Structures are given as structure tokens and as C-alpha cells.
Amino acid sequence: MDVLKFLNGLKNGIAILIDPDKFSSKDELRIYLDKVSFANPDIVFIGGSTVSKIDFQNCVELSKEKIKAPIVIFPGASHQLSEHADAILFLSLISGRNPDYLIGHHIAAVSELEKMNLQIIPTSYMLVDGGKKSSVEYISNTNPIPKDAFSIARKTALAGKYLGHKILYADAGSGAMEHISKEMITILSETNSPLIVGGGIRSIEQIRSAHQAGAQVVVIGNKVEEDINFLLDIKNYSLNLGL
Question: Residue 126 — φ and ψ, nearest 5°?
Fold first, then answer.
């Protein structure tokens, strides 16, 4: 499957972000994946800031078995690779100035990547302040773009586009207190395509608002972990879009 082509053609998409580090056993993960499959998301991202290599690979393999949607790696480090995935977002943290997350981890991953039949999608990854220090911010030792710094965000996104990145992923971070504003989403949507937005989104109304502002894909992670029944709301939202 050409995941980039799929993303470019997607409208009002929903992605579920799965952090393998959140599950204490394979059985617990299997039950969770069955419920994610029922929600029928458009895409599933897998990654985390601190997950081990073996837990990551097990999660990807199980996800591929249980979920029909494309399984895409959202890597938190160079070891988060698996040939069972459909693609990898080759993230460059363009909002920060840490060379490890601009190019360092990418170089470390090349030896394994070139042996895999895995679609590699160059991706601009941009952190936007969500009102709380995120795991990515802490691990990468970088600062997010201020939530109202629209000009900086726009220029940063365009720089990523001019570097040849194919996707823009704007993230307020895991467990953010505030999601990225409609104004920021609209500005970013005009600079690159497709636009993926995540972090701090906790209701169907916020998903709808992000879509209306220009996000092609909205990512849900923590909310589902805290309230598994939210997957039913996501399923109903997607079904109603088709009416």
C-alpha cells in the first residue's frame, strides 16, 4: 500500500496513536487492539518516547494482525523499526535545534531501514506548546513553538516543505492541557499537505473543529487510553461523515 498517496487523499481522517509502553502484557495489548479495530480508524500510528525494541516490534506485529488500517511507525528513537509496518514517518523535529532529532537518529536507523521493505515518508515534526511539558519535549531537550507564534510556525512549516518533507505533523504533545488552536491549524494547513494534528484532543467536538480548520488527520492517543468507550464515539463520528 502507498501510505503517502492514501494520506494525500484522506479527508477528515482519524488516527489512533498506540504507545506500546502503556501495556504490561501481550494479552492486555490484544484486548486493546481488538477494540481499536472495532472503531475502524483510518490509520494507526505506533511509537513512544521510552518503549523498548522488543515491545515495539511485538506491538507492530500484533497490530498488523488485528487491524485493517495502515500501520505506520511514529518513531521516538532509532530502534523503533519493524518490517511488519506499512510505513514509517521519518520524523525530523524541525521545531527544535537538537541535531539528534534533526538527523542523528535517522543516520542510526539507516542500516536496518535499508534492509526493510518499508515505505519511508519524510515528515516535518513540529511541537507546539500545549500548556504542559510533554514527553517529547523532555526526551528531545527542545522547546515547542509558542501556541500563538503563528508567523514562526508558518515559516518553520514552509522550511520543512522546502527541504522536501512530504507531511507536516503538528503536535501539542502527549497529555497536553490544550490542543493546537483552530487559527494555528488553518495557517499550517496552507503550507503543506497533508497536515496531521495531535495532542490534547479529547472530544468529538475538538476533532470536528480540527478537521474544519484544515487538519486532514486528527490523532487520538491519551483520551482512548483513559476512556476506552471513546472509540465508539470515534466510530460513530466517522460513520456520520459518510451520510
Answer: -130, 120
* CATH fold group of domain 3-237: TIM Barrel (3.20.20)
What CA–CA distance (Å, rounded) separates 44 from 15? 5
CA dihedral 178, 189, 60, 27 (to 10 degrees): 30
Q: Among 96, 169, 108, which Cα is nearest to 137's?
A: 96
**pLDDT confidence tier of residue 59, bands split at 50, 70 and 90:** very high
214: cell is 484544515
What cell was used for 86? 506499512
pLDDT digits (tens, 9 = 90+) for 130-171: 999 999 999 999 999 999 999 999 999 999 999 999 999 999
CA dist., res. 237 & res. 243, Å (int) = 10
pLDDT tens per residue across span 177-229: 999 999 999 999 999 779 999 999 999 999 999 999 999 999 999 999 999 99
| Nearest to 144, CA basis, from 195, 225, 198 | 198
Cα angle: 232, vertex 197, 139; to 5 degrees: 105
Q: Which among 4, 43, 8 has a CA at the least distance from the CA of 193?
A: 8
Instruction: Cite the beta strand spans of the chain per DSSP E.
Output: 13-18, 43-46, 71-73, 87-93, 119-127, 167-171, 195-198, 217-220
Query: Cell numbers at residue 53, please?
Result: 525494541
Helix 182-189 and helix 204-213: axis angle, to 10°?
Answer: 40
Domain boundaries, the chain: 3-237
